């Protein structure tokens, strides 16, 4: 009888030391932040096993899968999180990001619209939705979203850059050049921006000297697509 009591006490102690789903989730987040994605997934799975309604663990598992480039698996996990809690913008935003990586722009746009409706204050949603709209060649709507980002974060160089691409698609080279100058002023290492600036200056405005200077800068920064323009139009 005494041995049975001791054994029951030991079991109770082991049970009491078993980590909760929240503790497992928090450990998984630490691993996720340290780019240990597969190990993080193991902790998120343990948290979900303990509490299948832990949408935070589901969403975080989806993020870890996304970081590994497993976009279809991530989409499935984000969808499961949405089924449990359709009122959080995060899994909609994250699933939209996975669709964006797959260049499934229409599906991404639908998710970003849902995320924006649930939390219209999230600047990242506007930026990524702008990218999806750019991919869909819906240039005016893309410019609107990217302007929201720029108003909130004026130093967001990529927002200026993608706005420039949208403006070019919308047949506005004047606005595009202005946005490209803003881009390179904020990020002097963006070779693609120098390239686009040089090409636009030469093709839209006939500014050969200025255009060649920017094309050569793009080439110096490793943007090799500028080489053919430099060879064809900027040789001494």
Commentary on this structure:
It comes from Cecembia lonarensis (strain CCUG 58316 / KCTC 22772 / LW9). Keywords: Lipoprotein, Repeat, TPR repeat. The chain is mostly helical and 236 residues long. It has a domain at 17-102: Serine Threonine Protein Phosphatase 5, Tetratricopeptide repeat (Alpha Horseshoe). 79% of the residues lie in helices and 0% in strands. The protein contains 14 helices and no strands. It has helices spanning 2-17, 21-33, 37-50, 55-67, 71-84, 89-101, 105-118, 123-135, 139-152, 157-169, 173-186, 191-205, 208-220, 226-233. Helix 13 packs across helix 14. It is elongated, with a radius of gyration of 25 Å. The chain starts with a helix and ends with a helix.
- The CATH architecture designation of the domain at 17-102 is Alpha Horseshoe
Number of helices: 14
| Integer average pLDDT | 93
Structural class: mainly alpha
Percentage of residues in DSSP E strands: under 5%
Uncertain parts: 7-16
Fourth CATH level, the homologous superfamily of the domain at 17-102? Tetratricopeptide repeat domain
CATH fold topology of the domain at 17-102: Serine Threonine Protein Phosphatase 5, Tetratricopeptide repeat
- As a whole number of angstroms, the C-alpha radius of gyration is 25 Å
N-to-C CA distance: 99 Å
Largest sheet: none
Gross morphology is elongated
CATH class group of the domain at 17-102: Mainly Alpha
The total count of strands amounts to 0
Helical content (DSSP H or I, runs of 4+): over 70%
Order of helices and strands: HHHHHHHHHHHHHH
């Amino acid at each position: 009888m005494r041995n049975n009591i001791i054994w029951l006490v030991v079991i109770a102690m082991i049970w009491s030391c078993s980590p909760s789903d929240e503790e497992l989730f928090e450990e998984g987040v630490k691993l996720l932040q340290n780019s240990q994605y597969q190990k993080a997934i193991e902790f998120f799975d343990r948290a979900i096993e303990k509490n299948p309604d832990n949408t935070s663990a589901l969403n975080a598992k989806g993020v870890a899968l996304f970081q590994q480039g497993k976009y279809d698996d991530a989409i499935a996990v984000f969808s499961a999180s949405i089924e449990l809690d359709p009122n959080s913008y995060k899994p909609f935003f994250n699933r939209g990001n996975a669709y964006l990586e797959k260049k499934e722009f229409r599906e991404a746009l639908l998710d970003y619209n849902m995320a924006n409706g649930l939390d219209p204050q999230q600047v990242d949603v506007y930026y990524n939705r702008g990218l999806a709209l750019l991919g869909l060649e819906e240039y005016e709507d893309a410019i609107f979203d990217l302007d929201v980002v720029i108003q909130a974060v004026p130093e967001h160089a990529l927002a200026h850059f993608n706005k420039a691409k949208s403006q070019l698609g919308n047949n506005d080279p004047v606005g595009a050049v202005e946005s490209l100058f803003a881009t390179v002023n904020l990020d002097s290492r963006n070779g693609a921006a120098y390239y686009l600036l040089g090409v636009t200056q030469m093709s839209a405005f006939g500014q050969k000297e200025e255009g060649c200077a920017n094309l050569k800068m793009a080439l110096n920064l490793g943007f090799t697509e500028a080489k053919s323009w430099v060879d064809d139009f900027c040789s001494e």
